[in-house]
Each structure stands twice: as structure tokens, then as C-alpha cells.
Design brief:
The structure is a single chain. This protein is α+β, with helices and mostly antiparallel strands. It has ten helices and 41 strands. Strands 34-35-37-36-38-39-40-41 form an eight-stranded mixed beta sheet, sandwiched between helices. The longest helix has 19 residues, at about 60-80. It is globular and about 75 Å long. The two termini are about 50 Å apart.
């Protein structure tokens, strides 16, 4: 079980009048938004913020600017003759049945399926994997345009109830409802202002996390504070929910609750950022039992894998942790002596990252990440390796199973293999295909290589290169370099219908492994955080230089793309080395590094970034690379398509708005600076397929056009 966490001056009132200015690109007349006299003093340094007004939600001035910018972007994209063809090709490539890993409750199977072009995947149930399933919940019926998505769900142990959370237009805010599974009846239960929450059943109710209701009109930008855990009993109003856990002394912490598979133990975790958590627990079988501590600090990540009795019949917790083990270890914990000094290694730290472990019928299936690809081994509960799970090729495996079932399910995907779902019979040790992909993409026509490049300081890192067989290494290939490099998140092989269309058009896809990610454990992560964040940008730039040096491509054939923290990556790379790239596509990016922590959940990213207020050293470091503050007037920047969404309450769209306005004013070259602002969409999760296809067609049309690939 894994917890889910995230990620002075005077303001001048503006009139609604927006004028236009002629740029170096004679064909585009950008809006010229008015500027305010906002400045901020950071440790004696005055920093201007002329577009501070763009941080306000839903003002008439901002709405007019958005409409004008979107009109310009759509007009420019409409000039690209291949755009409609790409949309058709991407639509065709998406049109195949896609399945999730099944999971089981009370001898009934549940899984998601998208028939092909449905905006949202549908939740099915069945008593047997050999019989036809029935629909349990179809999110496509929740809205006409597919912008309401299912964002979380949990089924009660007895299989009677489904608790599910929905998101409107991609927002992180969730509403929770309850369904009677047998009758299909939606009950009266309705929970609001839920955010960054699991739903975890115990008896006739479930635990969840929420904030207090935000100020009206500030729902998508106000700082999220005072997270709380509640218990909701089916059939009662939210006002009657029982407060289980809060920390009034620490408003900038998140908290989450999980119940073990047998519903005997409640586990609570607090986080201060996107990395590190405390771990608390309580015995639910004992009325009034105290909450105890298993891990008291935020300097490691610790999660519960399973609970079992040992050979002496004593209950033991099995935890996955990187405490004193950057590549993680699996430890056995006595609930009567739960603190780290009493932990016993079951599977010690090794050379590869111990990424995950699942209890499957009395044995542990352990997934390692070795050079950004999965390897899976079986262990017994004495810590002995007893077998391997063979995977088809270089790729990534997902696992779903319960501790007392004679079967489990696993998925496999890679850059050229769409996801396939397998069933593993633990009594025979045999795997069989459960759900096979019928995409019109033929993996045999493509290949993926794992190459190694050296960063500025000599650090070696892998990079995955995927392309159509027969590609010539002559420096002329349109190339898309993608990266992330943050928050301990690993970039691993996965199939993308949109990327596959780019490959069809002669494109080379390069995915660079960067410091700051989780591919090589916590030391690798920390090497790309705070005052070492420049390492991430250096890695990315070195990957681009490697591609040019090895004659895969050249600067005028090279595009870069990344989203969220990857949008920061693209923004930093294009402002530090505008000469190196022909195209830049920063998506939902963190681009104002001096103020990111002032909105919604931004404060939680401080462990990776630091903040401009914590010290002069940290301010000066952030100021040196903050993309917004390093745009230089009179510079020839790459062709840029900034992508954001109006309901993004994770990385608020003001980052992209201010970056676009500043870049449009400063750019002296002939390359366009466009911003595409999606409506009724958020940070990315839950986006309807129709919007995903339109967005991808626009992005790849822009990239291919400016790389000369049309």
C-alpha cells in the first residue's frame, strides 16, 4: 500500500484596453498587455513583476488576453497543412481497446477499459475473467464533453460499496460519492473539498483527506493549508464525519490514511513536501488504541507493503523505505518496537533501485529499476530470492495482486510495445495473456536503443532513443528530446500513441534520464535539488549536445518538450541555451521560481526547489535560473509553443501567462512565441481523450513544421 501525495509593491488596476505590437515575426501581431509597477525586494535585490495582475483569477482583462492569445495561436496552427492529417492519424492510433490491471474484491474482478476513442475509461466488474463483464461506472455519462473524470476509487472489503471521486475539468479538487455495487444505485453520500486523498475502507465507511472550503473566487489559486483526515460512514452527511487526524501547528503539511487489507491497522502519514513522510499507526481492533510512531521524520520515504504473521505467529509490518538506504530496502517491523533502530532488513539495499514490492500469496514480488527499466524477482518471507518474473524485453512492469490470492496480474509496456495485461498462476508459475493490444502500430518496424551520455561535470546517464528502423545517423533527423528530472520521479519506457505518430513521420524520440529523478535512488534525486538544480539543466543540455555530436540530429532539427517540472526544465534550457534548440514546448510549467510556493500546493515543492524567501543564497540561486526572470530582450529564441490549462490548480496557469507575455515582448528573432490555453482542463490528469488528441495534433504539427519535417 502506497500513500498518494503531491506535488512588497503596489498593484495598479488595469483597464480592459489591450493594444497590439508588431514583432520581428512580421506575420504575427501579439497582444500588448498592460504592465503594473509591481516590484519585490529580495534581500536587497529589486525584482520587477509587471504582469503580476495575471495571477488574479477570471478578471475581464485576463479573459480578454487569453481569448486574443488563443485566437492568434489557432490562426497560426491552422496555417500548418499537416495539422488535420496528424489529428486523423493520432485518432486512428488511439482507436484500440486499452485495459487497466484488474483488481479483486470479495471474489469479484474489477478493471477499466477504453474501447478506443472514449473520452474516459469505463469501470467494469465480473465474477469470472472468462465471462462478459458488466459496466459498474461509466464516467463518460457524467458530462457531455468528457471533462468530468474519475480520479480515485475504493471498494469495500465485502464488495458492497464503491466510493469514487470525480474531478471537474481536471481540477485537483474532488467530489466523492458512494455507489451500491449490487443495485447500481448512487447513494446520497456527497463529500466536497477533497484533495490529495486516498479513499480507504474500514467496515461501513472510509477514511479520506480534505481541506476547509477555500475563499470564494480563489478556488484555483489560494494556498492549500491545514489538511485533515476524516472518517465517513455510509449514509451520513459530511458534517457528521469524524475528524481522525490534523496538525494545527503545521498548516503546510499534508496527511493521508490507509487501512491494511485485513482492516486491522490504520496507517497515517504526514508530508511537508513531495519527498519524505512520517509513518504513524493504530490498532483498529482495540477501542481507544493510541496512535503510535513507526517513522518520525521527513528525511526518508516509508510505505507499508503488507502485514503478516511470522513463524512465531507474531504480526509484523513489512515496510519499503529509503531510510539509511538510498536505493531502498524492505524491512520487518515489530509493532511493539516500531522505531527504526529496531527494524530488521528482509531484503537489504542493493545496486539497483528497489522500486516496489507486492505480497502475492505468501511470497513477495519485488520490482527493481535497473538503468530505468524493470526487473522483477520473487522472494520468500525469510528474504531468500526464489525466482524471477521474465519480461518480454526492455520496458516497465506494473503489478496487481492480493496477499491470499492464487493469482496476480501484471502489465508490460515499452516505447514500442502498447500495454499488455498478463495473468500469473502462482500454482503453476505460468503467465498467460489476459488482455492483448490490437493497435495498428507494428512494433517490429521500430526499435529502442539505450545509450549513455556524459553531463557537464562528467556524470554518466542513460538516454532512450526510439525511431523507425532504417533511420540514418546523418544529423538530419527531426528529433524530440523529452525530460523531467525532479521529485524522485522516474522516466521509464512506455508506449504513447501520439509519440508513435511522430515516429511515423521520421521523428527520433529521445528520453533523457536526468538527476533529480528517481531512477537511481535518493542520492540521484538529491543531486538535482535546491542548490544542485542546475545539474538537471546541465544533464538535459548535455543530452542535446550528445545527439548532435553523434549525428542523430542538429540544432535546427531539435525540439525539446516537458511538462510541469519538465516545463521548468524546458524553460530553463531554452533561456540558458537558446542557440541549441529550434523548437521549445514547455507544458504546464513551473516558470516563476520566485513565487511558485505562494499558490495552491506549491509550498510542497520546496524540498526540491527551495524558496526565494528562505535565504539570500537560495533566492540568488533561484533567480539565476528562473525561466521567467532570465528572458533577455533582444535574444533570438526557439519557436515556442507554451501549453497550459485554465483549470490547472497544481501549477497555476499564471506561470505560463507571465512567461508568454514576457517572451513575446523580448524575442528579437523571427520564430513565433505562441501560447495554447486549454479550457475546461487541468494539470493533465483526467483530460478527455478528445482534448488529448487535439492538443497532441497541435503540438506535433508545430514541432514538425518548425523542424522542417513537413
Amino acid at each position: 500500500m502506497r500513500f498518494s501525495f503531491i506535488f512588497g509593491g503596489v498593484f495598479i488596476l488595469l483597464t480592459a484596453t489591450l493594444t497590439a505590437t508588431l514583432t520581428a515575426n512580421e506575420s504575427i501581431r501579439y497582444p500588448e498587455p498592460q504592465e503594473c509597477d509591481q516590484t519585490d525586494n529580495y534581500f536587497g535585490t529589486e525584482v520587477a513583476d509587471p504582469y503580476r495582475w495575471m495571477e488574479e483569477e477570471k478578471t475581464p482583462e485576463l479573459q480578454q488576453w487569453i481569448e486574443e492569445e488563443n485566437a492568434i495561436t489557432q490562426k497560426e496552427l491552422a496555417k500548418i497543412s499537416l495539422r488535420d492529417q496528424l489529428k486523423k492519424e493520432i485518432t486512428d492510433r488511439f482507436n484500440y481497446a486499452k485495459y487497466s490491471l484488474p483488481f479483486k474484491k470479495n471474489d469479484r474482478y474489477f478493471y477499466f477499459k477504453n474501447d478506443g476513442l472514449q473520452n474516459q475509461a469505463v469501470l467494469y466488474q465480473t465474477n469470472s475473467l472468462t465471462e462478459s463483464p458488466t459496466v459498474l461506472l461509466d464516467p463518460n455519462l457524467l458530462s457531455e464533453d468528457g471533462t468530468v473524470s474519475l480520479s480515485a476509487l475504493s471498494i469495500s472489503k465485502d464488495g458492497k460499496y464503491l466510493a469514487y471521486a470525480i474531478s471537474q475539468s481536471g481540477s485537483d479538487w474532488k467530489e466523492v460519492f458512494v455507489l451500491d455495487i449490487e443495485t447500481g444505485e448512487k447513494l446520497n453520500d456527497h463529500l466536497k473539498w477533497v484533495k490529495f486523498s486516498d479513499l480507504s475502507w474500514q467496515k461501513n465507511g472510509f477514511y479520506y483527506s480534505r481541506y476547509d472550503e477555500p475563499p470564494q473566487g480563489k478556488e484555483f489559486s489560494s494556498k492549500n493549508e491545514f489538511h485533515k483526515v476524516y472518517y465517513h460512514q455510509v449514509g451520513t452527511a459530511q458534517e457528521e464525519d469524524v475528524l481522525i487526524f490534523e496538525n494545527q501547528e503545521e498548516p503546510l503539511r499534508n496527511c493521508a490514511a490507509e487501512v491494511d487489507e485485513d482492516e486491522n491497522w490504520l496507517f497515517l502519514a504526514e508530508t511537508e513536501s513531495t519527498y519524505g513522510n512520517t509513518l504513524l499507526f493504530k490498532d483498529l481492533r482495540i477501542e481507544g488504541a493510541p496512535i503510535q510512531t513507526a517513522f518520525p521524520n521527513f528525511d526518508a520515504e516509508t510505505s507499508v507493503v503488507t502485514i503478516r504473521k511470522n513463524q512465531e505467529g507474531k504480526e509484523r509490518f513489512y515496510l519499503l523505505t529509503d531510510f539509511q538506504a538510498p536505493n531502498r530496502r524492505l524491512v520487518e517491523v515489530d509493532p511493539e518496537n516500531p522505531l527504526p533502530e529496531h527494524w530488521v532488513d528482509l531484503i537489504p539495499e542493493g545496486e539497483s533501485l528497489l522500486e516496489n514490492a507486492v505480497d502475492v500469496n505468501g511470497r513477495l514480488l519485488v520490482r527493481y529499476l535497473k538503468d530505468a527499466a524493470s526487473e522483477c524477482d520473487f522472494f520468500d518471507f525469510q528474504g531468500n530470492k526464489i525466482g524471477e518474473l521474465e519480461l518480454p524485453t526492455l520496458g516497465v512492469c506494473g503489478i496487481s495482486g492480493q496477499k491470499d490470492d492464487p493469482e496476480f496480474f501484471y502489465s508490460f509496456t515499452s516505447f514500442v510495445y502498447p500495454t499488455v495485461i498478463y495473468r500469473y498462476d502462482l500454482s503453476t508459475g505460468n503467465s498467460s495473456v489476459l488482455f492483448e493490444t490490437t493497435s495498428n502500430f507494428n512494433p517490429e518496424n521500430y526499435q529502442t536503443d539505450r545509450v549513455w551520455y556524459a553531463s557537464k561535470d562528467g556524470t554518466r546517464a542513460p538516454m532512450f532513443l526510439t525511431y523507425k528502423k532504417g533511420m540514418k545517423q546523418d544529423g538530419t533527423n527531426p528529433t524530440l528530446l523529452y525530460g523531467y528530472g525532479g521529485f524522485n520521479i522516474s522516466m521509464t519506457p512506455s508506449f504513447s500513441p501520439t509519440r508513435s505518430v511522430f515516429l511515423d513521420h521520421g521523428g527520433l524520440l529521445a528520453v533523457a534520464i536526468l538527476r533529480g529523478g528517481g531512477e537511481y535512488g535518493e542520492n540521484w534525486h538529491k543531486a538535482g535539488t535546491k542548490c544542485q538544480k542546475q545539474n538537471v539543466f546541465d544533464d538535459f543540455i548535455a543530452a542535446a549536445e550528445f545527439l548532435i555530436q553523434e549525428k542523430y540530429t542538429q540544432s535546427n532539427k531539435l525540439a525539446i518538450n516537458g511538462g510541469s517540472n519538465g516545463g521548468l526544465l524546458v524553460g530553463a534550457a531554452m533561456t540558458q541555451r537558446p542557440d541549441l534548440f529550434q523548437v521549445a514546448v514547455p507544458a504546464v510549467g513551473v516558470l516563476d521560481m520566485l513565487r511558485y510556493h505562494k499558490f495552491t500546493i506549491g509550498w510542497a515543492w520546496a524540498t526540491d526547489y527551495g524558496t526565494s524567501e528562505e535565504s539570500q543564497e537560495m533566492f540568488e540561486y533561484l533567480y539565476r535560473y528562473s525561466p521567467l526572470h532570465n528572458i533577455r530582450k533582444g535574444t533570438d529564441y526557439p519557436a515556442t509553443l507554451i501549453m497550459t490549462s485554465d483549470h490547472d490548480d497544481r501549477v497555476v496557469p499564471a506561470h505560463s501567462f507571465k512567461f508568454a507575455a514576457t517572451l513575446q515582448k523580448a524575442n528579437s528573432g523571427k520564430n513565433p512565441t505562441l501560447i495554447r490555453i486549454e479550457t475546461k482542463a487541468g494539470h493533465g490528469s483526467g483530460k478527455p481523450l478528445s482534448k488529448t488528441i487535439e492538443e497532441a495534433a497541435d503540438m506535433y504539427a508545430f514541432i514538425l513544421y518548425h523542424l522542417g519535417g513537413l
